[in-house]
Amino acid sequence: MSRHAQHPIDRAVALERGDGGVFHGQTSPDYANMVGPFGGTTAATMLNSVLLDPRRLGDPVALTVNYAGPVVDGRFAIRADALRTNRSTQHWSVAMSQADQICTSATAFFATRRDTWTHTETGFPEVPPAGDLARFDNAAMPPWTRCYDMRFVTGGRPSTGQGVDELDSLSMLWIRDEPPRPLDFVSLTAICDSFFPRIIIRRPQWVPAGTVSLTVYFHADAAQLQRHGAGPLLGVAKASHFGLGYHDQTAEIWSAAGDLLATSHQIVYFKE
Residue 237 pairs with which residues in a beta bridge? Predict the structure, then answer.
């Protein structure tokens, strides 16, 4: 268990060690989505199984989560296997199962980070501070949205009065855990999946949609996340292409100080 054990995100990702290197957990009603749990907490739970493993080396650098089937409310089991450990790097394979079937799989790459030359090609967007923006009204949204304070600069709930050619897929928002919680890899992973599907932003209608595969690249180490504290993060997300039942999504997560903490890429299924 983490030091923030009473926070909803920590209850959602909490794991108990079982026999044979298997962890056991329970989905959380706090992070319920329209169908099953919020995918961000599923990804964070997969990562947490490695973070809790005594064999773990260093900090996460990359995490890829494949949602192979629906996660139903209730108990689940996770097995994390260290595939290879080198002097400063480590590769993991993780599988979540329910009723003896794998519902989610993941790979994770960990490393001991070191100081090197640093440069960020993309720029921090010019946006108003979080305190100048109204909090997103999530009263009619799934329960997981109430675990976040969201303040949109652009690309929030789409207006049904706009035509499809008047919209784009870009969203920019300030976001933090609700209640406030010091940032770590668990909460950052979940936030990387907190953007609404781009198809819902691009078109003024709600359609069934869900992430199939999510990859997170971490650009900060544990010390950098700890220095950030519990303040809001700036999230930027957009799509490049929609078609044949799927769309992509790229996202950036920035600290208020202008540090790029993580980027993510995902492929999303949608149905008309």
Answer: 171, 251
Do the Cβ atoms of 259 and 250 come closer than 8 Å? Answer: no
Burial class (CB in 10 A: 0-12, 13-18, 19+), 264: buried
Residue 132: which residues within 8 A CB-CB, separation 6 or more?
Answer: none
pLDDT at 2 over 80: no
Distance separating alpha carbons of residues 223 and 40, to the nearest angstrom: 22
Neighbours of 190 (CB within 10 A): 27
**pLDDT above 60 for 4:** no
| Six-digit token string for 198 | 């781009």
Contacting residues for 100 by C-beta, under 8 A, at least 6 apart: none
Three-state secondary structure along 221-245? CHHHHHHHCCCCEEEEEECCCEECC
Using an 8 Å Cβ cutoff, are 63 and 216 in contact?
Answer: yes
Residue 115 pLDDT: 95
Taking the C-alpha atoms of residue 61 and residue 44, their distance in angstroms, rounded to an integer, is: 14
d(CA 13, CA 28): 8
Nearest Cα to 157, choosing from 176, 136, 175?
Answer: 136
**Collapsing DSSP states into helix, strand and coil, what is residue 256?**
coil
Radius of gyration of the chain (CA): 18
Pairing, β 171-177 against β 209-218: unpaired
* Both tokens assigned to 102: 């794998």
> Which pLDDT belongs to residue 204?
73
pLDDT digits (tens, 9 = 90+) for 40-81: 999 999 999 999 999 999 999 999 999 999 999 999 999 999
How far is residue 226's CA from residue 188's CA, in Å, rounded to a whole number? 11
Residue 131: other Cβ atoms inside 10 A: 8
Share of the chain above pLDDT 90, in %: 89
Which pLDDT band, with edges at 50, 70 and 90, does 1 fall under?
very low
